Amino acid sequence: MIAITHEPIDPFRFIESAKRPETGGIVTFIGTVRDDGIEALELDVCEEVALSDLRKIAEQASSDYHLNTVDIIHRVGRMQLTETIVVIVVGASHRQEGFAACSWILEQIKEFVPIWKKDICKNGESWHFTK
Amino acid sequence: MIAITHEPIDPFRFIESAKRPETGGIVTFIGTVRDDGIEALELDVCEEVALSDLRKIAEQASSDYHLNTVDIIHRVGRMQLTETIVVIVVGASHRQEGFAACSWILEQIKEFVPIWKKDICKNGESWHFTK
Amino acid sequence: MKVTIRCYARFRDAFGEEQEIDLPPGSTVRDAVITLAKTGPDAELLVDDAQNIRSYVMIMYHDERISPIDAGLITLADGDLIILFPPVSGG
Amino acid sequence: MKVTIRCYARFRDAFGEEQEIDLPPGSTVRDAVITLAKTGPDAELLVDDAQNIRSYVMIMYHDERISPIDAGLITLADGDLIILFPPVSGG
Predict the structure, then answer these.
(1) Domain D2-85 sits in which CATH superfamily?
(2) CA–CA dist D7, D82 (Å, integer)
(3) ipTM above 0.90, yes or no
């Protein structure tokens, strides 16, 4: 499943559904809200473009890394410390392709998918903005 | 947790317990029984050496990749297609270290930890044996 | 003619969520962004001193990403929509 | 003197789970492995034609891994335990 959601993400159903006879390795990345001195994190999104981008990334990864399954679920809205921001689950026949694909998908998301993080701190809010 | 078990592994408790304020990325590898024309897989182990090796690998990974948490659970005995053989969960502050550590741990296991796979097929059994 | 510019995240804070801008016929995407930049106190977020669009600005036009370098080559039509994305930080 | 050799996985199928072997005093780990190899039909699984231990054989002695190359340098004591692992395939 490729999705953008405002609700908490349950990664377990995606891991379960990645179990296929042709799959030997399931590699999962779960991004969580890290305490960098913040109270919470708020994520903004341009949903129609982001969803279309995620679908293209998943398709490319499936093809380039010969994946059997790909799931990408990105949450937006406000999240507390340790809550799950993103879940990427890839099912691969071979482990190296699984690791490479999962990492590549994450880097692609960070490079161009229109999602933005804003730190919510005691004394204000500030967008992550790296030129 | 570092463990060798004869029972099915539930990866979810390890993923849940990896959620810490200092952790930004949880990378999980789940190895599953792939259908290479087999009926089942049977894993043998030298348990005391394997457990000691896994502990050393986890310690080294924690130190080298600055991990916040490491779990390695390896199952032995007989497993059916799609069942989970091994679960590796690493909690890292930074994603690249998470991917690198999880992959490194798996390669170390495959290189020297005394665990052996035997294919159970319709017409016989055969050990994996790559010189 | 009128074109609409929609902004996200930090650009929205600086220039509003959506602005309708009046431009002379023949104007380009670059002209529209320069015009928008002048409406806020943080023009330099969008354009440099030479009025070139910052290289980090992601521009969506007709559902396609276009490069800030090409923005001066693309002529607008009345009713067009331009979307501006600041540097992303998802994942 | 007597030493015990324990085998795992494919080596166990070929040479039994545990064998007690009689050796003259001064014998080395290499001597013990050569002696074990002769007890089964698949001696070449453990040693090559020059009676050197195959490089893929993992040898545990006194809770330490020792290299097949060093096996001829390590002198055994009565009651010692040697463990032989075939190439591993976990993960």
Answers:
(1) Beta-grasp domain (3.10.20.30)
(2) 9
(3) yes
